[in-house]
Amino acid sequence: AQSVTQPDIHITVSEGASLELRCNYSYGATPYLFWYVQSPGQGLQLLLKYFSGDTLVQGIKGFEAEFKRSQSSFNLRKPSVHWSDAAEYFCAVGAGFQKLVFGTGTRLLVSP
Amino acid sequence: GAGVSQSPSNKVTEKGKDVELRCDPISGHTALYWYRQRLGQGLEFLIYFQGNSAPDKSGLPSDRFSAERTGESVSTLTIQRTQQEDSAVYLCASSLSEVVNTEAFFGQGTRLTVV
After folding, report:
1. Which of A14, A22, A62, B61 is least crowded, fewest Cβ atoms below 10 Å from its Cβ?
2. What is the pLDDT of residues B47-60, one digit of tens each?
3. CA nearest neighbour of B32 among B76, B85, B82, B79
4. What pLDDT, on the 0 to 100 scale, is given for residue B73?
5. What's the pLDDT tens digit per position in B42-94?
């Protein structure tokens, strides 16, 4: 069965600094991978997704993620964090239809 | 509508009572999903609908949980004889189809507290 691990529960980054959120997945075949963001009082919003092709995926709000099959990872990155990026970030893996398996999330705090 | 709408946004209920949670998907979206998000945990898949039928109910945790969808639109998740462990945020999502590369749009959720 597929699973997703987000090893960092909380991360604090200074505004303007770079960000990397880790995600490791377990899935037997080629995975479909997603990153969602959940801001306070908001629903989940899709940041980016990977299905095939170029392993570096660009998303909204300046985020990108890189699929590394050898490491079973799909880490999310942003070169310069803004205070508005403070939120909870979820990595998810899907197989077949849209039955997504989510990680437990990483809460991002942005310090001034 | 403009987005996925869920109601109520918050629900406090006494243990043993039944509750109904409502989801209005985006118009024209044939696929609808329910997830549960317990405190400090990721989202757990509960059930998905394609049209009015539910091909996969495997995530429903017990027979106290049921869901239906009518008119390929509104869906209701019903929890009977609520227990404290049912306390969670229940999220609904919809997408144009069940194919995995179509984006799922999430509602803001219903926060259920069982006291």
Report:
1. A14
2. 989 899 988 888 99
3. B76
4. 92
5. 889 999 898 999 888 889 999 999 999 998 899 999 999 999 999 999 999 99
Write the single-letter amino acid at A58: Q
> What's the farthest any 2 CA atoms get from each other in chain A?
42
| Beta carbons within 10 angstroms of residue B23's beta carbon | 27
**Shortest alpha-carbon distance between residue A55 and chain B (Å):** 16
Nearest to B95 among A36, A44, A98 (CB): A98
Taking contacts as CB-CB distances below 8 angstroms, the residues of chain B near A49 are: 101, 103
Please enumerate, as own/partner, the contacts of A1-4 that have beta carbons within 8 Å and a separation of 24 or more. Answer: A1/A101, A2/A26, A2/A27, A2/A28, A2/A31, A2/A93, A2/A95, A2/A101, A3/A27, A3/A93, A3/A101, A4/A91, A4/A92, A4/A93, A4/A101, A4/A102, A4/A103, A4/B42
Contact B77, B23 (CB under 8 A): yes
For B55, which residue in chain A has the nearest alpha carbon? Answer: A97
Q: Say if residue A34 is exposed, middle or buried (CB neighbours under 10 Å; 0-12, 13-18, 19+).
A: buried
Amino acid at B114: V
The 10 Å CB-count burial string (b at 16+, else e) for B79-94 is beebeeebbbbbbbbb
Calpha distance A27→B66 (Å, rounded): 29
Residue A110, C-beta contacts closer than 8 angstroms, at least 6 positions apart: A12, A13, A14, A15, A81, A82, A83, A85, A86
